[in-house]
Design brief:
By secondary structure, the chain is mainly beta. Among the domains are: about 90 residues, Immunoglobulins (Immunoglobulin-like, Sandwich), CATH 2.60.40; about 70 residues, Sandwich (Immunoglobulin-like). Helix content is about 0%, strand content about 40%. It contains one helix and 64 strands. The protein has a 15-stranded parallel β-sheet that branches. Strand 58 and strand 59 form a beta hairpin. The chain is globular.
Length: about 675
C-alpha cells in the first residue's frame, strides 16, 4: 500500500513568506498495488472490460492507458460514453479506480499516451475513490465527471484539458471531495458559461448538496473557477449547500484568453472569454454548518467579452448572487483583476445574509474592490485592500443594506477614488469603525476611530510568494509585494522554577512573556517532565510533585503562544526555553555542606563520598539533566570510569532531602 497524500498543512516563514501548503481538510488516499492473483483486483485495458465496473465481487479497478471516451451508449455507459457507476462501497470497504501506468506522477504532468481518457457518472454510488483519470479535447459543454445522489466519494488528481465543462456535483450528494485536480483550457474558442468545479441544483427546487470539499485544485482559464449554481434564479428554490469547504485552490486566467472586447484575441486586452474566480448563487441554510471559502488564490480576471457569448460579468474575482447565506470567506488572496468582491443581484430580497468576509488580501484590483448591495448582517473585517480602483471613481459602494460591519480594514493607495454610500441603507445599523487609510479617501460614513496615516503601514510587511502550476511540468513562482503583515513569534525568557522540590509540594514556573508585535499572551503551553517521561502538559504554571519522584529530576519549559495563536516552531521553543531542575536544589534545601566530603574533583576513575546526613542514594546526571547512573551510597567509591570526559552532577538524597554537586570527569 502507498500513501500518496499528506494531510498536514506545512507553513515555512522566511524573509519573504513562502507558503507551501496542503489543505488541512484533505482526504487521505491510500492506494493498493496491482496483484493479478488478487480476485478483488481487475485490470481494464479495453472498452469491453468496463462492463465489469459494477461487479460486486470486484473492489479495485486498475486502468491501463488508453482512450475510453467513445464507447457510446451501452449498459454501463451513458449517451456521452461516460462510465455509469451504480455499485456502492462502505466506509471500511471503499471501491477504487486507479491509473495503472507504472508511475505515480500527477496526470497534469503526463503525456497523453500515459493517460486513461474516461468520464464518469456516479449514480447512487457511495465510497468510491477515482484517482489519476483524465479527459481532454471535448469542446462541448460535457462534464467529464458528474456525481448524482452519491455520497462519500473522492475525485483525486483528475486532469481536464480543453473540455467545455468540469467536475459537477448534483442534488442528493453529500460528503464528496474533489482534490488535487488540474482543470485547464488554452483554446479561446471554448467559452461555455460553465465552471471548472460546480455544485449544481440541476433545475430543481428544495434540494441539498452538503459537506462537499474542494481542495488543492488548480483551475486555469475556465469561465468560472468554482460555482454554486442555481439555474431557476427567478424564484426561491430553497437550495442548501451547507458545509461546503473550498480551501487552498488556485483559480486564475491569463492572456491566453484575453480579448479586445470584440471577440479578437489580445494578450493586453481588458476583456476575456471568462468571468470569475468563484461565483456563488447558493450558500448554506444552516448557521452552525456554514459554507467556508478559505486560503484560495485568485487572479487575472477581466470583464467578460459578450461577443458571440452570454458572458456579461465585469470580471469580479468573487461575486455573490441570489440570497447566499451563512458563508465565511477568509484568508483568500485576490490580485490583478477587474473587480474584487461584489455582492448584488438578489432574487429573493437579499444577496447575502449572516456572513463574514475577513482576513483577505485584495491587491491591484483595477476597478472597485468592494460592492455591497442588498445585504443583511454581513461583516467585512480586517481585510487589506492595496493598489485599488485605479480605473474607477470609487473603491467601494454600500447600497440598500442593513447590519453591515465594516471594521479594522486597511486601505492603501486607492488614490482619489471614493467609498460611496448610496440610497436605501439602514445606516443606524451600520458599524464602520477602526479602519486605517493611507493615500486613500475614507468612507463617507467614516468614524472618529478611523485612522488616516501619512506613512504606508505596509512598508514593513512581507512579500507573499507562492508556486502555481504545481500539477504541470512548468511550475512558476509569483510574488505579491508587501501584503503579509509579519506576525512575530512570541518568546519566553527568564524561566525560573520556584517552590520546595519535595514529594507532595507544588512547584511554580515563572517566565517573562514578550511579543514584538505587542500581542498579549494567549494559551501558552507548559510541560513538566522527567528526562524520560512527560508528567503534565497544559496551561497550568504549577505542578504538584507526586509520590515516587523524590529521586528523580523534574524539568519544566514553556511553549509561548500569543493572543493571535502565533507560536514558535515547537522544537526551537523547547530547546531554547527549557530549564531542568531536580526534586531539590541547593538554593532551596538546607544541607550543611560541611557534613560531607566528596573527592577527588576533578576525578578520573572513582568518586568517594563521606557524609553524616544519612544521604542513602546517588544519581549522576549529565549537563541536560539526563540520569546516566545511580546507586546506593556506602563506604565504597563510586566508579565513574566509563563516563566520557566532561561536566556532571551527582545528586545525593534520602526520603526527605537531596542536594546536587557538580564534578568534572577527566
Amino acid at each position: 500500500m502507498k500513501n500518496i497524500i499528506t494531510t498536514t498543512a506545512l507553513l515555512f516563514f522566511l524573509s519573504t513568506r513562502i507558503i507551501i501548503a496542503q489543505s488541512i481538510y484533505e482526504e487521505n488516499v491510500i492506494l493498493p498495488t496491482y496483484n493479478a492473483n488478487n480476485s478483488e483486483m481487475f485490470l481494464i485495458n479495453s472498452n469491453a472490460d468496463w462492463s465489469h465496473i459494477n461487479d460486486t465481487d470486484k473492489k479495485y479497478f486498475f486502468i491501463a492507458p488508453g482512450d475510453y471516451s467513445s464507447m457510446g451508449n451501452t449498459s454501463y455507459t451513458d449517451f456521452y460514453g461516460r462510465i455509469v457507476i451504480t455499485t456502492t462501497g462502505t466506509a471500511t470497504n471503499k471501491r477504487y479506480i486507479i491509473l495503472h501506468n507504472g508511475n505515480d506522477t500527477h496526470t497534469g504532468k503526463l503525456s497523453r499516451n500515459q493517460l486513461a481518457k474516461v468520464g464518469f457518472v456516479l449514480q447512487n454510488a457511495n465510497y468510491w475513490v477515482i484517482d489519476r483519470m483524465a479527459y481532454w479535447e471535448s469542446p462541448e459543454a460535457l462534464s467529464p465527471i458528474e456525481i448524482k445522489n452519491s455520497d462519500h466519494n473522492i475525485i483525486n488528481r483528475y486532469f481536464i484539458h480543453n473540455v467545455g465543462s468540469g467536475i459537477y456535483v448534483l442534488p442528493g450528494s453529500d460528503y464528496n471531495t474533489v482534490q488535487n485536480c488540474r482543470i485547464e483550457r488554452d483554446d479561446i474558442s471554448i467559452f461555455h458559461d460553465r465552471a471548472g468545479i460546480g455544485l449544481h441544483n440541476d433545475n430543481q427546487d428544495n434540494i441539498s448538496i452538503t459537506n462537499t470539499k474542494v481542495l488543492n485544485n488548480e483551475v486555469y482559464n475556465f469561465v468560472d473557477g468554482f460555482q454554486t449554481i442555481r439555474t431557476n434564479e427567478n424564484n426561491t428554490p430553497n437550495c442548501n449547500f451547507e458545509g461546503t469547504i473550498v480551501d487552498h485552490n488556485h483559480f486564475y486566467i491569463d492572456n491566453t484568453i484575453y480579448t479586445d472586447g470584440n471577440g479578437n484575441h489580445d494578450p493586453n486586452g481588458n476583456h476575456a472569454y471568462a468571468e470569475n474566480g468563484m461565483d456563488f448563487k447558493i450558500g448554506s441554510e444552516n448557521p452552525i454548518n456554514p459554507m467556508i471559502i478559505s486560503n484560495n488564490i485568485m487572479w487575472g480576471f477581466r470583464s467578460g467579452d459578450t461577443t458571440n457569448s452570454n458572458l456579461g460579468d465585469p470580471g469580479a474575482v468573487l461575486p455573490i448572487h441570489y440570497n447566499v447565506n451563512n458563508t465565511v470567506i477568509k484568508n483568500n488572496i485576490s490580485f490583478d483583476s477587474a473587480v474584487g468582491f461584489s455582492i448584488d443581484d438578489p432574487k429573493s430580497g437579499y444577496s447575502m445574509r449572516n456572513s463574514i468576509i475577513k482576513d483577505n488580501i485584495f491587491y491591484n484590483i483595477k476597478g472597485r474592490v468592494l460592492f455591497i448591495k442588498y445585504t443583511d448582517n454581513v461583516a467585512f473585517i480586517n481585510n487589506l485592500c492595496k493598489e485599488i480602483a485605479i480605473n474607477n471613481n470609487y473603491w467601494s459602494r454600500f447600497h440598500q443594506s442593513s447590519n453591515l460591519n465594516f471594521s479594522e480594514n486597511i486601505l492603501v493607495n486607492t488614490g482619489n477614488s471614493e467609498s460611496r454610500v448610496s440610497e436605501g441603507n439602514d445606516l443606524s445599523t451600520f458599524s464602520v469603525i477602526n479602519n486605517t487609510y493611507y493615500q486613500s479617501l475614507p468612507s463617507e460614513i467614516a468614524d472618529t476611530t478611523d485612522i488616516i496615516l501619512t506613512t504606508d503601514p505596509t512598508l514593513n510587511y512581507d512579500d507573499f510568494v507562492f508556486t502555481t502550476d504545481r500539477f504541470t511540468n512548468n511550475p512558476r513562482t509569483i510574488t505579491i509585494p508587501k501584503v503579509i503583515k509579519i506576525n512575530h513569534a512570541p518568546t519566553a525568557t527568564n524561566i525560573m522554577i520556584t517552590g520546595t522540590p519535595e514529594v507532595g509540594q507544588t512547584l511554580t514556573l515563572n517566565y517573562d512573556f514578550s511579543d514584538e508585535d505587542g500581542d498579549t499572551e494567549g494559551q501558552s503551553i507548559i510541560a513538566w517532565s522527567t528526562p524520560t517521561l512527560e508528567l503534565q502538559r497544559g496551561t497550568s504554571t504549577t505542578f504538584a510533585i507526586p509520590t515516587g519522584y523524590c529521586d528523580d529530576t523534574i524539568g519544566a519549559w514553556v511553549h509561548p503562544v500569543d493572543s493571535t495563536g502565533n507560536t514558535p516552531t515547537y522544537g526551537i521553543a523547547a530547546s531554547n526555553n527549557m530549564l531542568d531542575i531536580t526534586c531539590s536544589t541547593a538554593s532551596v534545601v538546607s544541607i550543611d555542606r560541611d557534613t560531607f566530603t566528596m573527592y577527588p574533583n576533578p576525578a578520573t576513575n572513582f568518586l568517594t563520598v563521606k557524609n553524616q546526613q544519612n544521604l542513602k542514594n546517588y544519581s549522576i546526571l549529565n549537563m541536560v539533566g539526563q540520569k546516566i547512573a545511580s546507586g546506593i551510597l556506602n563506604e565504597e567509591p563510586i566508579n565513574i570510569d566509563t563516563l566520557e570526559k566532561g561536566i556532571y552532577f551527582i545528586k545525593l538524597s534520602n526520603d526527605k532531602k537531596s542536594m546536587m554537586i557538580q564534578f568534572i570527569k577527566n
